[in-house]
Design brief:
Order of helices and strands: HHEEHHHHH
Helix content: 55-70%
Structural class: mainly alpha
Number of helices: 7
Number of domains: 1
Strand content: under 5%
Shape: globular
């Protein structure tokens, strides 16, 4: 089922607010900044492709250990991930629109990037859910991860009301809102 133009517009209008999340009035020392989007380089057809960088497994394990069972840190990380994904989503939407006039290869490359970005966000949410021992936070992160996975990179499947409800549940689990 395709979403109506009004629904897509509602999603577009809601995303900047979702990107901002619960950071309004937040302490940047506590929540940190947004996770920066990976650098990109123009690929074939002028479509931006992410640069690849290797992640040291010991650094990742150290980060997981620092978050493990720390509800406040996991909430802060979830907020940064949500903000980052909101920004990436907007860029991906623009990429999708721009690629339409550049041929099938550009559209396919844009679709691959969007799918990868959605999978990365879903994985991050699921990984944070595994690290927490707070039942409400685990449930909120798991629900968001499953819902984001259901998009399968199709931007037209994103429903602003559902995302807002999931975000509100996460905010509540994190003691905000």
């Amino acid at each position: 089922m395709r979403s109506s133009p009004k629904r897509r517009l509602a999603v577009l209008l809601a995303l900047p607010f979702l990107a901002a999340g619960c950071s309004a009035g937040g302490d940047t020392a506590t929540t940190g900044g947004a996770i920066p989007a990976p650098p990109t380089a123009a690929g074939p057809g002028g479509v931006a492709a992410p640069a690849t960088t290797a992640v040291d497994p010991s650094v990742a394990a150290s980060a997981d250990a620092a978050l493990s069972s720390n509800t406040k840190a996991i909430c802060a990380q979830a907020q940064r991930a949500r903000t980052s994904f909101g920004e990436i989503f907007i860029a991906d939407l623009k990429l999708k629109i721009d690629s339409a006039g550049k041929g099938a290869a550009a559209v396919a490359q844009a679709d691959e990037k969007i799918t990868r970005d959605v999978q990365n966000y879903s994985y991050a949410l699921g990984d944070m859910a595994k690290l927490t021992d707070d039942a409400a936070l685990k449930k909120a992160l798991t629900a968001m991860s499953r819902r984001v996975t259901a998009f399968k990179g199709d931007l037209t499947k994103i429903n602003a009301e559902q995302i807002s409800a999931l975000s509100a549940t996460l905010d509540q689990a994190c003691g905000k809102g």
